[in-house]
Write a structure and sequence with these properties.
This protein has 9 helices and 7 strands, in the order ααββαβαβαβαβαβαα. It is an alpha/beta fold and about 240 residues long. The chain starts with a helix and ends with a helix.
Length: about 240
């Protein structure tokens, strides 16, 4: 089994190097074509890992309209699962600047039009979110993990960052909440061995942002995720303790 796992890692790595190099080069001339290569990269990696992505949509979405998609984040496989689940969309990811330091992958991330955020530089972060607004005006959707990083095994959700919600309010683009389930069982945080299995992606109804306060939008997205995600160990212990008192 270890040899099979090593082989999977090697194949995913090779696939990523080939597609990142190709997509990065294509992205210099056509970002949309480059993202189509990214979709193929995701499908191949999911196949290599023996993972099935099952998508459940609670409302129809217009693939030609821009949205701000927001999802929970528990595993490195979340990115692949979301790309597969939203196959008809042109997505640009809001990614932390640290990812651009990954050899080849980081170069491709910049060349394919994704939005790079440096949280240590407020001016640059604001500029990046404005770049996201320009892309949405061209009908491109933006994908954000509002937690900012992967949550720990004991927590259901981390505290949300506010930048993505401000971007949605600034453009008037609806927010679509998404719940990614079971990815942490297929590839837990800190692990490298992938267990074949199924990842479910629940795509919610668009949330209009016009006339809604930022904190209310945060509450609605969080409520959707808490409704569809199983409670984490910490939340379960808290609830048990509250019921005991």
């Amino acid at each position: 089994m270890i040899l099979v796992s090593i082989l999977k890692v090697v194949l995913v790595g090779l696939n990523t190097v080939v597609f990142a190099s190709t997509a990065g080069a294509v992205g210099l001339f056509d970002e949309r074509a480059a993202y189509r290569l990214c979709r193929l990269w995701a499908r191949i990696n999911v196949l290599i890992c023996g993972v099935r992505v099952r998508t459940r949509r609670l409302a129809p979405l217009d693939p030609k309209a821009p949205y701000v998609f927001m999802s929970n984040h528990r595993s490195q496989l979340d990115v692949l699962a979301v790309i597969v689940a939203l196959a008809e969309f042109q997505l640009r990811w809001v990614a932390k600047v640290e990812l651009t330091r990954v050899p080849v992958f980081g170069w491709a991330l910049r060349r394919t039009g994704h939005i790079i955020i440096d949280r240590s530089n407020t001016t640059q972060a604001v500029r990046s979110l404005r770049a996201a607004e320009l892309r949405m005006r061209d009908g491109i959707s933006v994908m954000i993990f509002p937690e900012g990083t992967r949550s720990t095994p004991g927590e259901t959700l981390l505290r949300f960052k506010k930048g993505g919600f401000m971007t949605a309010l600034g453009t008037g683009v609806p927010i679509v909440p998404m719940a990614v389930l079971h990815s942490d069982k297929v590839l837990p945080r800190g692990a490298w061995r992938v267990t074949p299995g199924e990842i479910e992606v629940v795509v919610g109804r668009p949330i209009p942002v016009a006339g809604v306060e930022r904190d209310e939008l945060i509450r609605r997205v969080r409520a959707f995720l808490l409704e569809h995600l199983p409670p984490g160990e910490i939340e379960t212990r808290r609830r048990v303790a509250q019921e005991a008192t």
